[in-house]
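Example record used in the benchmark description.
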Amino acid sequence: MSALRGALMCWSDQLIDKQSKSQLVASPRPNPVDRTPPPDNPDDDTESNLLSSSAQFEPEGRSYTREGIARESMSERHFVKYTFLKLDPAWRRLDAATRGQHKLEFLAACEDFADGHLLQSFSLVGTRGDADLLLISEAENLDRIHEFHVVLLQSGLMAWAHTPYSFLGMRKSSEYSEDERVRSRGFLGKYVFVYPFVKSREWYRLSADERWRIMQEHIKVGREYPTVDNHTTYSFGLDDQEFVVAFDTDDVGAFLDLVQRLRATEASSFTARDTPSFTCIAAPLQRALNALDGERLATLAG
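Model output (structure tokens):
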């Protein structure tokens, strides 16, 4: 470990059990475990939570019905954190050596967390005016998410950045599907679309059977767009939104057409909020950092 990373990670090393770590996902084409082709019957409680690439199966001892799902063990369910960052334009006026040092410190913090947890990076340069970079981190408990962001704040880059948006969600199986949704899996598409989602109170006053009936139209529409994959997580009581809706695809047009089709469905009338919406480009972290100032980052020495 370099002197740079050693200095930056001294606090982290006291908190994080190194034996619990696995592999960084920094590529726009990660290869996480348990990744299987999309199921035939994807669905969920949000307007556009329709497509999932996790396997359809019913684990032994777990029963799914339209009225609800069996509770997953907390040890199976992971937290997913969406952290959007925006750089102060003044940072770009710093000398190249200082900017490079800041990026190396940021990279070291991310690599430390990713050595054991799923972490992916995305660039929003050119697609949003209020965010430049997205980190999606996943961990088995909130302590790991907390520790990661504490270490991240020690980097020089974060002294020039703020967090305009931050969404926290948790994996949970849908009451409308037998899909296994609690397992960690990465985004595989070239493009990722993220937005917070809130249903109206009228939706929850409907009976379980009525909500199930309404969702079937959504499922039918979703089956027509198999190249769009869904990664929705639940946020009830954890954050301001009820869901964090996220899709990945290589076909932006297919995603646009899917969302437009969903606007005409019955379930759409129960949407209270589904903005802001973020269009993100999957990129290895070094490339996403390079996009912040157009300067190539040298590889961090091991």
